[in-house]
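Record type: monomer structure entry
Structure origin: computed from sequence
Chain ID: A
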Amino acid sequence: MKTNAIRILESHHIEHATIEYQFSEEEIDAVSVAHKIGAEAETVFKTLVARNDENEILVFVIPGNFELNLKKAAKASGSKNIEMIKVKELQLLTGYIRGGCSPIGMKKLFRTFIDETAQLQDKIYCSAGVRGMQINIAPNDLCGVISAKFADLI
């Protein structure tokens, strides 16, 4: 199965691998995904979508075993404050559903920030754009393909 995210990586000739796993509605969080694919939780990154005080949509990609620090996210993005979007807005804004939101291939290229700890890993995992599939990719390649910036977010 090729998702939009995978097609984008292939069109840019970016080295990556995919891994599929069985999922359930109760276990779509990044820590559960890490367990299912046999990876360390700090290498499985979750994609979070937020809105700043100017109504700009921002994307934050952080290790699955951490929570986004909203003050650090605001600072990284040059915003006064940040709040998470409502789950019901996710698909409308990004084209993705909760548990299958990839930072690659959203409806629009939003300003995106990847937690700086990603740079400590040779490869990280992120959603391939559907529940049950992850992409394994070098952090710098992910950063480049989505025009992201590394920042202290946790």
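Annotation 1: The first helix runs from residue 4 to 11.
Annotation 2: The mean pLDDT is 96.
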